[in-house]
């Protein structure tokens, strides 16, 4: 007799049911499990109590690897797709033609304001907002670099799109984002229209202040380059201009105001201008610090890296790819590292102006690491990644410009001194003999032409040899410097004080001048030398022998010969040195 199978026990039936459930879940796949986990997100309520609502943790995302799915297909298959909650600091690299889909539900409760979706991230290739309107038809809005900013729904810095105004039920919104090569981490937020406009007004105020400062500094730098013939200011003007354009492009200002009808250039501007900032900045630092301070190795490395970056920019534009973009990013990081080394080498020289320039560039170098980390997918987009470099550039500008002014001042002073050596005598700062004789000749010509008199005083520091013999050359030179200072104090604006030889000076008093004025000047010089000075040894003074003549002398056949007139006075001075009782001799009056 066949045995009757026994009915499974209750615990066995439960085990079998559990196995079948697990098998069913495995066959349905993880997408359904993921959707079941996150489908509980409640619709976002938009009413008067809210002004801005971030979509982080209130929206779901999915990446379409091929980028060919329509919104209709995504809507129909959403429960089978691995949608996940989009968290704060979310970032994703969209390889190839991949597209990012973001889904959120929102219901308008307050019809007194319009609600708008903002993607706070400029440079996105394409952003599309899809939703079904009241007639159950798809409504679409588009923005991004593939379109001219003037063709956006709102010609704004960032993509901004309007939400549906109906209040009868929640609306499901689908946002499709294309953003090749650069990891995407833009923040999506919903704002009411008034809040967003107020936010833009505040942003435009500060952005306008910064870019106005850039324009002013670039203009002043160009003016300084022209006036002082200093190429450092010209390079600084190029650097700050390229940096300003790069920041304007990355912040969306350039696309909104400078080239709103050029989607092609708007899409590539950031990829060209930011690496170009590294090139111009590198060459600027090299030029300002000067190759001799850097050494041969750093100088050649700077030139080679600048050339390599230019080639990488061309490669990235001719054949754009993820590889070319990563090469540009690594090249930018290498540039910052090289600039650090260059600044350190310059800092060690101890020059004050070099340190001001180093301090000025340092903030931009520090914040420049943020976009590098973002491009490498190590950092999400945020306030610092968007505005960090602009803040650093605003700090950099006055420090760097001050350092350049100090450098230019020192160089200009050195050039002025070099030019002055052709006209003045180095020790006393008085006119040298050659130019003194030239001035005397010109004065004689004028005196004969206009029939007036000039005065020539030949002054000898009588105790100069004694100073050198008793106190050394340094004290004797100090006595000469004091004599030069005394002559400058006596001379009028039109007069010329000249060092004639080792211990003799001449004072040319331009005419018309009277004999009494010439004697008074000689007396003042003599008295000034007798006053004690802390620069001389205690108990010593300057003793002078002075010969005074009114020129031209009618009875002499010297005409306009300046050298002959000087020799005439020198002969009288030699005779005066023999007279210990007399210090001033008038020759022809």
Task: Using brief descriptors, characterize the structure shown.
alpha+beta, Immunoglobulin-like, 4 domains, 7-stranded mixed beta sheet, 5-stranded mixed beta sheet, 17 helices, Biofilm_reg_signaling
Give the helix/strand layout.
Elements: H1 10-28, H2 30-38, E1 44-46, E2 52-54, E3 60-64, H3 71-76, E4 84-85, E5 99-108, E6 115-119, E7 126-132, E8 138-143, E9 160-162, E10 171-178, E11 188-192, H4 193-228, H5 231-250, H6 253-258, H7 263-289, H8 291-294, H9 296-318, H10 322-347, H11 352-375, H12 383-420, H13 433-450, E12 454-461, H14 464-471, H15 473-490, E13 496-499, E14 504-509, H16 515-530, E15 544-551, H17 562-577, E16 584-586
Parallel strand pairs: 1-5, 15-16
Antiparallel strand pairs: 2-11, 3-4, 3-5, 5-10, 6-9, 6-11, 7-8, 7-10, 12-14, 12-15, 13-14
Helix pairs in contact: 4-5, 4-12, 5-7, 5-12, 7-9, 7-10, 9-10, 10-11, 11-12, 14-15, 15-16
Transmembrane segments: 205-227, 234-259, 265-285, 297-315, 327-346, 353-373, 385-405
Domain GGDEF: 452-589
Protein name: Diguanylate cyclase (GGDEF)-like protein
Describe the protein's architecture and organization.
InterPro entries: 7TMR_DISM_rcpt_extracell_dom1 (IPR011623), 7TMR_DISM_rcpt_extracell_dom2 (IPR011622), Biofilm_reg_signaling (IPR052155), GGDEF_dom (IPR000160), Nucleotide_cyclase (IPR029787), Rev_trsase/Diguanyl_cyclase (IPR043128). Keywords: Membrane, Transmembrane, Transmembrane helix. Pfam families: 7TMR-DISM_7TM, 7TMR-DISMED2, GGDEF. This is Diguanylate cyclase (GGDEF)-like protein. The chain crosses the membrane at residues 205-227, 234-259, 265-285, 297-315, 327-346, 353-373, 385-405. The chain is an alpha+beta fold and 589 residues long. The chain has 4 domains: 11-36, no CATH class; 37-196, Sandwich (Immunoglobulin-like), CATH 2.60.40.2380; 205-414; 433-586, 2-Layer Sandwich (Alpha-Beta Plaits). It contains 17 helices and 16 strands. The chain has helices spanning 10-28, 30-38, 71-76, 193-228, 231-250, 253-258, 263-289, 291-294, 296-318, 322-347, 352-375, 383-420, 433-450, 464-471, 473-490, 515-530, 562-577; strands at residues 44-46, 52-54, 60-64, 84-85, 99-108, 115-119, 126-132, 138-143, 160-162, 171-178, 188-192, 454-461, 496-499, 504-509, 544-551, 584-586. Strands 1, 3, 4, 5, 7, 8 and 10 form a 7-stranded mixed beta sheet that branches. It has a 5-stranded mixed beta sheet with strand order 13-14-12-15-16, sandwiched between helices. Strands 2-11-6-9 form a 4-stranded antiparallel beta sheet. A hairpin with a 4-residue loop joins strand 13 (496-499) and strand 14 (504-509). The chain is elongated and about 120 Å long. Residues 1-39 have low confidence and may be disordered.
């Amino acid at each position: 007799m066949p045995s009757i199978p026994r009915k499974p026990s209750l615990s066995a039936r439960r085990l079998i049911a559990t196995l079948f459930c697990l098998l069913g879940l495995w066959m349905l796949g993880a997408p359904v499990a993921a959707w079941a986990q996150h489908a509980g997100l409640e619709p976002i309520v938009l009413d008067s109590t809210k002004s801005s609502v971030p979509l982080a943790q209130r929206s779901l995302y999915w990446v379409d690897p091929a980028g060919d799915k329509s919104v209709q297909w995504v809507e129909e298959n959403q429960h089978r797709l691995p949608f996940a909650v989009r968290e704060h600091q979310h970032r994703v690299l969209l390889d190839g033609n991949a597209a990012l889909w973001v889904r959120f539900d929102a219901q308008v409760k307050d019809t007194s304001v319009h609600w708008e979706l903002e993607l706070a991230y400029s440079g996105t290739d394409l952003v599309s907002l899809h939703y079904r309107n009241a007639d159950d038809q798809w409504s679409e809005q588009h923005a991004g670099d593939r379109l001219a900013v003037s063709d956006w729904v709102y010609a704004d810095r960032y993509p901004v799109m309007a939400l549906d105004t109906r209040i009868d039920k929640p609306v499901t919104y689908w946002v499709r984002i294309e953003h090749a090569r650069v990891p995407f981490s833009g923040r999506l937020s919903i704002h009411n229209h008034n809040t967003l406009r107020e936010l833009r007004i505040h942003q435009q105020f500060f952005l306008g202040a910064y870019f106005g400062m850039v324009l002013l500094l670039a203009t002043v730098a160009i003016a300084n380059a022209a006036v002082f013939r200093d190429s450092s200011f010209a390079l600084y003007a190029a650097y700050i201009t390229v940096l300003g354009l790069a920041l304007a492009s990355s912040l969306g200002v350039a696309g909104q105001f400078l080239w709103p009808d050029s989607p092609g250039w708007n899409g590539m501007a950031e990829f060209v201008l930011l690496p170009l900032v590294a090139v111009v900045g590198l060459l600027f630092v090299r030029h300002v610090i000067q190759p001799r301070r850097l050494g041969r190795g750093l100088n050649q490395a700077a030139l080679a890296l600048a050339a390599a970056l230019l080639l990488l920019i061309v490669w990235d534009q001719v054949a754009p790819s993820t590889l070319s973009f990563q090469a540009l990013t690594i090249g930018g990081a290498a540039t910052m590292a090289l600039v650090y080394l260059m600044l350190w080498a310059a800092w060690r020289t101890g020059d004050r102006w070099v340190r001001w320039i180093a301090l000025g560039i340092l903030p931009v170098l520090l914040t420049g690491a943020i976009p590098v980390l973002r491009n490498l997918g190590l950092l999400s987009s945020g306030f610092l990644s968007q505005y960090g470099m602009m803040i650093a550039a605003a700090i950099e500008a006055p420090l760097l410009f001050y350092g350049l002014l100090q450098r230019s001042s020192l160089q200009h002073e050195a050039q002025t001194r070099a030019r002055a050596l052709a006209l003045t005598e180095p020790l006393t700062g008085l006119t040298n003999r050659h130019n003194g004789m030239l001035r005397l000749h010109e004065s004689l010509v004028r005196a004969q032409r206009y029939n007036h008199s000039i005065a020539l005083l030949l002054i000898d520091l009588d105790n100069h040899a004694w100073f050198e013999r008793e106190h050394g050359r340094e004290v004797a030179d100090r006595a000469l410097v004091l004599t030069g200072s005394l002559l400058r104090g006596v001379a009028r604006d039109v007069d010329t004080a000249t060092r004639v030889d080792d211990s003799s000076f001449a004072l040319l008093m331009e005419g018309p001048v009277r004999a009494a004025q010439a004697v008074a000047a000689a007396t003042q010089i003599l008295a000034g030398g007798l006053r004690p000075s802390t620069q001389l040894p205690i108990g010593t003074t300057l003793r002078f022998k002075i010969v005074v003549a009114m020129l031209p002398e009618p009875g002499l056949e010297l005409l306009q010969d300046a050298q002959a007139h000087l020799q005439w006075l020198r002969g009288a001075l030699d005779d005066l040195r023999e007279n210990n009782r007399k210090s001033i001799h008038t020759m022809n009056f």
